[in-house]
């Protein structure tokens, strides 16, 4: 961080390295000017990068300002940096679509033996419909398959996909405002547990899509795991959640 104190506010420069679509590092140079009235007033933002075109830098700036408006009246720079680290690839996706389509095929075949699986437990969902829609969008964006499973008060998310995308999903899950608290205010997910994370083995069935399912009995839920070749995973982690 380089700070340049000024009489009309503070300007500071941040350089962050982000993994881009083609798994190359993009060095983003972000300049934030915080006026004296910040955070009641939006910061001025400048974006530069040797790896991006000027148009792409402008797109990144526009998206950052859009996000900044959502955080008006609260400190936002840290949240903006986290957001662009997670979403850079989607912001510049349109201009890289052709390139991306070519590499996706080769990437998926080359990492076929490197597919990972993640089992998460959520304590509750207050804004259920919105929460489900968010999880479905993340799974789609990150090309993850699996299940969002409800059985009584048990809520489980089972994901399969590229290891880096699984990691990215976890970041989104922990840093985004996905639910509401008891007073109805948007809040981040604080009551999530990673039950299990492993490389997909030969005995595990690959899910073809991401689906949301509700089960009326524990037997129904168990059969879902058994069909996927995950009987051991079920018996080790799910029954204890009922206690």
TrEMBL record:
A Pfam family it matches: RWD
Domain of life: Eukaryota
Entry keyword set: Cytoplasm, Nucleus
Domain RWD per the UniProt entry, residue ranges: 1-91
GO biological process, one term: positive regulation of hypoxia-inducible factor-1alpha signaling pathway
Entry annotated with the keyword Cytoplasm: yes
Cell compartment(s), UniProt: Cytoplasm; Nucleus
Cellular component annotations (GO), alphabetically ordered: cytoplasm; nucleus
Protein name: RWD domain-containing protein 3
Source organism: Aramus guarauna (Limpkin)
């Amino acid at each position: 961080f380089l700070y340049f104190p000024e009489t009309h506010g503070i300007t500071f420069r941040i350089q962050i390295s982000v993994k881009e679509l083609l798994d190359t590092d993009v060095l983003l140079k972000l300049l934030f000017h915080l006026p004296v009235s910040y955070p009641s007033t939006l910061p001025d933002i400048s974006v530069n990068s040797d790896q991006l075109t000027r148009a792409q830098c402008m797109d990144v700036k526009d998206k950052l300002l859009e996000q900044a408006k959502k955080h008006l009246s609260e400190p936002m720079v840290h949240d903006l940096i986290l957001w662009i680290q997670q979403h850079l690839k989607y912001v510049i996706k349109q201009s890289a679509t052709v390139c991306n389509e070519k590499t996706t095929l080769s990437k998926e075949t080359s990492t076929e033996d490197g597919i990972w699986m993640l089992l998460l437990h959520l304590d509750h969902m207050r804004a259920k419909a919105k929460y489900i829609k968010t999880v479905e969008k993340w799974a789609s964006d990150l090309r993850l398959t699996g299940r969002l499973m409800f059985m009584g008060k048990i809520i489980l998310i089972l994901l399969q996909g590229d290891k880096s995308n699984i990691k990215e999903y976890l970041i989104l899950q922990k840093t985004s405002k996905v639910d509401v608290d008891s007073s109805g205010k948007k809040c981040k997910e604080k009551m999530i547990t990673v039950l299990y994370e492993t490389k997909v083995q030969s005995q595990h069935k690959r899910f073809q899509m991401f689906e949301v399912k509700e089960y009326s009995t524990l037997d129904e839920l168990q059969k879902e795991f058994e069909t996927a070749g995950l009987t051991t995973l079920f018996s080790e982690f799910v029954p204890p959640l009922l206690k």
